[in-house]
Write a structure and sequence with these properties.
It contains four helices and nine strands, in the order αααβαββββββββ. It is an alpha+beta fold and 223 residues long. α2 packs antiparallel against α3.
Length: 223
């Protein structure tokens, strides 16, 4: 651009001279680049903060057993879950990233919590509680382990119903010890929605209004 010369004797309302076929640099174009980058950084920070808050809230809740008698804690946790749901809004959570061995961190599901709490009545204790999902094969196993050799698991078929919802139908159940196995009849069907998923955790709501927070187990469970 040609330099602009301002003379004291001339009106101060001078307009810069722009040579033909040249344009002034666009400040708008220059600003556009960093804005998305800052937005992504801010979103990542918010996601990490919300995730930490949820994990901190459930860290001392014994997988949900202590929450059952603490309504104010439950309310805090549900608020944190809703915040994670906002982060996961409009995302697809039913793709291949859903396929994994998921380990229970916290839940409101009364049946699972009953078994975890009362396993000692059968001379054992509850170990890892798992959801084992294979999207490609359309399979789901709900698993409660009783170390060192016991396990109770329910087999299900699954169908992807929407970007976040999975329909399931129980097909069979098995209670297994070290040297024995007891088949049980199938019971029930329903759906669950993974409202948030990443490389570490998944947050779930289901047909009955229960909540589930799981992480990716450091192993793969097999029948």
């Amino acid at each position: 651009m040609a330099p602009v010369l301002t003379l004291p004797a001339i009106s101060s309302n001078l307009v810069p001279f722009v040579p033909q076929n040249h344009e002034l640099p666009s400040l708008h174009r220059r600003r556009k680049k960093p804005i998305p980058s800052l937005s992504r950084s801010s979103l990542a920070d918010h996601s990490l903060s919300s995730k930490r808050r949820l994990l901190d809230l459930i860290s001392d809740q014994d997988r949900g057993l202590k929450t059952q008698s603490n309504p104010s804690k439950l309310s805090e946790i549900v608020d944190a879950i809703d915040a994670m749901g906002e982060l996961g809004r409009d995302t697809v959570t039913t793709g291949q990233s859903l396929s994994a061995t998921w380990r229970l961190l916290w839940t409101t599901e009364k049946e699972q919590l009953f078994i975890i709490k009362n396993a000692f009545l059968f001379g054992t204790r509850a170990g890892d509680v798992l959801q084992v999902i294979d999207v490609e094969k359309g399979k789901l196993n709900n698993v409660i382990t009783f170390p060192p050799h016991g396990v109770f698991f329910v087999r299900s078929n699954i169908d992807i119903a929407s970007p976040q919802r999975v329909n399931f139908r129980f097909t069979s159940a098995v209670l297994r010890g070290e040297n024995w196995e007891l088949p049980l009849p199938p019971f029930g069907q329903g759906w669950f929605e993974s409202i948030y998923i990443d490389d570490e955790i998944r947050v779930v709501k289901d047909i009955r209004g229960d909540y589930l927070v799981v992480d990716r187990a450091p192993y793969s469970w097999k029948e």
